[in-house]
Input
Amino acid sequence: MPVISPGLHLIATPIGAARDITLRALDLLEGCDMLVAEDTRSLRRLMELHGVALNGRRVLPYHDHNGAQMRPKLIEALRAGQSVLYASEAGTPLVSDPGFGLARAAIDDDLPVWAAPGASAVMAALCVAGLPSDRFCFMGFPPAQGGARKQMLTEAATIPATLVFYESPKRIHRFLTELCECLGADRQAALCRELTKLHEEVLRMTLADMTLAIAERTLKGEIVLVVDRAPARVADADTLDAALDTALRDMSVREAAAQVAQDLGLPRRAVYQAALAKEKDR
Output
């Protein structure tokens, strides 16, 4: 049995298939002084499946509703040099998860925080979506309020990265309609449902086609929605000329070229040559 270092140990738990637990996570479950979980029943069941005994330890609950009351007790245990394990309900801790508050409190108190990585719905969805994964932005759950949700989507529309959302089956139909309106119906997307579970399903198509494909369906289970990045903007000569005129009022040629190239998604060298020519004509 490996020696467990004192500190807060954040372990990833399976998002579906129980065998997706890591060997390191099992070592920590067996050896940590204190076990804490978002859902105590789920963690105890996982330990039973893998033959990890409690050995007199309790599994303490830590979730959105009791976090403020539990944190002082857990921080005190960490100060005393104990090893405290925290497990999310499913997946990697701190990703749309109440464990963030606990980790932040430990870090603020200069206490050790360790991560034992493993299953992640975000990464699993990116693997099977078939969309660019070199740059992605995790958006989490959309806000419940319509105005806040629209603002988030307006901001997301221009992010030059693949977008990853969590959404519930009850709200996915409405959300897809809003995505079509704010991001464009032709954006490619992948709806990943029940990843690693018996009824896993991945739909890959445009947002418009996806909206129609599930219109008459009642979906169940956890959903990760992956949406392709905003298409590259194609700037014509007039747009480039106007952008350079504006930038050159307050910037040097080099600074203006860099800024305009970034804003318009154009090669910096070409924009720099255009800026030089414009500056000579002044």
Remarks:
- The radius of gyration is 24 Å.
- Residues 237-281 form one domain.
- The chain is about 40% helix and 15% strand.
- The chain has a mean pLDDT of 93.
